[in-house]
Amino acid sequence: MPLVVLGMNHKTAPVVVRESFAVPGDALEDFDRELCEDPSIAEAMVVSTCNRVEVYAVPKGPIDALKPALVRRLGTERGLDAMQLDRHTYFLTGEEAVRHVMRVCASLDSLVVGEAQILGQVKDAMTVARDAATIGPVLDRTLQAAFHTAKAVRTDTEIARATVSIGSVAVDLARRIFPRLAETRVLVVGAGKMGRVTARSLASAGVERVYVTNRSREKAIALANEHGWHARDYSELDDLLTQVDVVLSCTGASRPILDVSRIKPIIRRRKYRPLFLVDIAVPRDIEPAVGDLDTVYLYNVDDLEAVSRENLEKRKEEAAEAEAMVERAVAEIASWHRGQSVKPTVVAIRRHADAVTEVEVEKALAKKQLADLDDKQRAAVKAAVRGVVNKLLHPSMAALREHAESGDGAELAAHARLLFGINSEDDAS
Questions:
Q1: Cα(39)–Cα(23) distance, rounded to whole angstroms?
Q2: Is this model's pTM higher than 0.70 or not?
Q3: Which end is more exposed in the chain, N or C (fewer Cβ atoms within 10 Å of the end residue's Cβ)?
Q4: What is the mean pLDDT of each run of 10 residues along the chain (429 residues)?
Q5: How far is CA 170 from the centre of its chain?
Q6: Active site (annotated) includes residue 50
Q7: Domains and CATH numbers, the chain
């Protein structure tokens, strides 16, 4: 099957590794385009979120050539450690790759099983790849099937009966620290997609004393007004850190916005009252060393996994039903993928037959016996010959497609090329 996935996620790589390999949103389109400039890659799309960095790709030739190309582009060409990439990534092919894409979209591979954000993130990544013109028939068909399956999982199972997300898990963690969270002063730093998701979770928990700050003041105001909270200017961040008890940080900054040198004086201004920081950004918003300071308690996305495991325990039955739905979808799309494997041979045989037919018919019509035929009669002769050729080819073409769907199409395609005198380089997609 012509699909591969090279990637890392929260299960295979800690946040310190994931953030180094993350691809910023404004760089995705160029990254997709540059991937497909490689001669071994026919189609490609990158998904980069707080919990995963993955490349979905379709090879132009042998799959063996694809992994080095993807590793080179994702790692070494960006000045990153290829050995570290190899240590923390998975490389999936064929049905395993299709199954992975399906599970990702259905939120079965998420840190928080059942969360809704990942499907939107994959759809956004597909839109970017379309703009970059790197989506072709294989990725398009596979992703559309994955989206359809994800919708069915959410509609026909109860895996998402309580809306969950990384933001909601962060709020659950804050509630464990502050049982009376509704009375706690909370600061949300960042008003982008994750900030909005986190805000909804805070609002559902009944938290009212919330401040929102963002580099774009207009976005902070819009988010705060949506929930009846208070928007504050980003320049007031230090003052806010002095006042609040819990900070949920989720900006899109490429470097930490809070480090030890900034937090130390704030601790003194707080008179050493405990400060709980939950960093759900990747790359991280808060320097890890901040967590070593007295009276500061820092959690990042990896720390949320224990909370999310409890969520999974509650959803095991629904998850099992969802996995069965994914398997049915994998079987269906796998059959289509296998059919694609013989398509170049079918096209090449058809092209060869058409070329031979055209030459031989023209030779026959050029003979003296047929020289008096008018245009209508000549067209009838050509149509009759093409009909005979089509009938002769049909059983072979049908057998190729049927055997491809059952899994042994590659061997039969090789025999067909030999019997019809088709060279491999004559194959066309």
A1: 22
A2: no
A3: C
A4: 88 91 92 94 94 94 85 84 86 93 92 82 95 95 94 81 67 78 89 88 87 95 95 96 93 92 95 90 93 91 73 67 88 74 77 86 84 85 87 80 63 75 59
A5: 23
A6: yes
A7: 4-162 (3.30.460.30), 166-307 (3.40.50.720), 336-426 (no CATH)
